[in-house]
Please model this.
Amino acid sequence: MSSRKGDRLERELVNMLDDVGFGVLRAPSSGSATKRELPDVLAGNGEIYLAIEAKASGRNRIYLEEEEVENLLSFAERFGARPRVGVRFDREDWFFFNPVNLYQTDSGNYRIKKEKALNDGADFYELIGISQQAELTD
Amino acid sequence: MSSRKGDRLERELVNMLDDVGFGVLRAPSSGSATKRELPDVLAGNGEIYLAIEAKASGRNRIYLEEEEVENLLSFAERFGARPRVGVRFDREDWFFFNPVNLYQTDSGNYRIKKEKALNDGADFYELIGISQQAELTD
Model:
């Protein structure tokens, strides 16, 4: 994410992970020479390691380029982290997908509809390994 | 590291880790608003995770502030990585220390002498879990 709004939302995600005890590193901004094929956010807590590509939209769909997803998968595999695409639609929470479960268009790019995110995406607690169900019944 | 030379040497270290199959992320530069208490380099290969504070010097001693080392230890513990201080003296290889083995001065800061680094520091292969000894005898 590179816009000012995207930057703010990415910091929101960093802070959420920080608040639940993760060590979190953001990649240098996209314009930087040191940005190779890096995820937006890298987080770990000694048990779970997450490489996250973060996307926000004021519309009802979010698109990712094929290369973006391939780079995420490649980095996550090398580093030893779970690859995740985090999507944030206006006035909604963050939802997360394993890239292998994303819909790929004929052009090779990936598309996430807002409805799909709310129905099928993992919420923040699932992302960090806490079952929401368990929370409610405990 | 923030100087141009420091930046070049930090990239050297990133490339070395990259070459042996690690996923590597550099923290945003020190001047950035997003640089909280982050290590210079974060690397993983699915087995070993490393949080590295990198220091270079043209002299015979390298100093680290107490806070710098505390931040490294704290981040590494949260993230689930091995904390390491990497030192690079002119015309020498990189050597690495677990911060707990560094000499602390009366003022609380840490000091690494070049001679100590060459004698007692772990070399790059030890850092990444390959015993140099094993390499030679294999």
